[in-house]
Amino acid sequence: MSYTVGAISPWDRRGMAQVDALLEKEGIRRDGNLDYTCGVFDEDDRLAATGSAFGNTLRCLAVDSAYQGEGLMNLLVTHLVERQAERGNFHLFVYTKCQTAKYFRDLGFYEIARVEGQVSFLENRAGGFAGFCRRLEKDRRPGKSAAIVMNANPFTLGHRYLVERAAAENDWLHLFILSEDASLVPFSARKEMVIKGTADLENVIYHDSGPYIISAATFPSYFLKDQEAVILGHARLDLALFPPIARALGVTARYVGEEPRSLVTGLYNQVMAQELPKAGIDCVILPRKALGAVPISASDVRKAIHDGHLDEIRDLVPASTWDYFHSPQAAPIIEAIRAGGETVHY
Length: 346
Known about the structure:
The chain is an alpha/beta fold. It has helices spanning 13-25, 72-86, 101-106, 128-136, 157-168, 187-197, 227-249, 263-275, 298-306, 319-325, 331-339, and strands spanning 4-7, 36-41, 47-54, 57-63, 93-96, 110-115, 119-123, 145-150, 172-177, 204-208, 251-257, 282-286, 290-291, 294-295. The chain folds into 2 domains: 4-126, 3-Layer(aba) Sandwich (Aminopeptidase); 133-287, Rossmann fold, CATH 3.40.50.620. The strands form 3 sheets. It has a 7-stranded mixed beta sheet with strand order 1-2-3-4-5-7-6, with helices on both faces.
């Protein structure tokens, strides 16, 4: 039998219904973050396999069990890799179930880390993660070092307090800013706010997070059965990847803010507090900085902007964030926040 591979537009209701039906049949569901989807069709135009991409990751790959053994996964991955090359993405990543990781290894991918029974994380570059860690070693400093991983969507006085405390309690602080553009405030703007807002702290070393520190916004959930499994899968994959990063930098503590309002982040912090010490890394959970009795949160800042009350953020953010949102370059971001839906994350 001969097969054809073609793109499926997100506006193709019939095509996407076929994709959803095939994914459901194979025990997965369509991921919320996709920017390209394709299908492998048989001679009768039936969907035999499907796969998608988001940024430089491959996602939602499935072959109908009726067609397995036909080499369709190879056909699918080859098409997606070629499509990614056309988009300028050559360093690719795959998240998949542990039991299907072997198919990707046969297609030139290398496993970076796994959470048994939940997720395998692979890349198409041998030694990619090891090379990333080696490059970090140039920023290693003598003395006591800590780390923070921060989205800063946007940067608040709560974030500033966390950085201030970690910097005061350590000789060096390695601050990773999540570089994925999956937030309402783009990476370039978040990075500018963080660096300007902490410029007086001379022992902070800034890092773009790169592809190996994975944000909750882009962690794929399509092969995990419920929300708790998604949170635990993300946390445990992060904790499988973070210790080699910490060793490269000589980091012995990771600082996080207490999360009284977000069930997702609260559970994530619990897992971190349990697992990081097993790798010789202290997990320091600091109480949130509050305005009166209310903890300061980026969600509240976004909500104030969404509701058209920009002046209300004055007591919640450092000068770098206040100045940014009153600059001409912030106009499209403010418009996007106001046009968006949910601004509070639970």
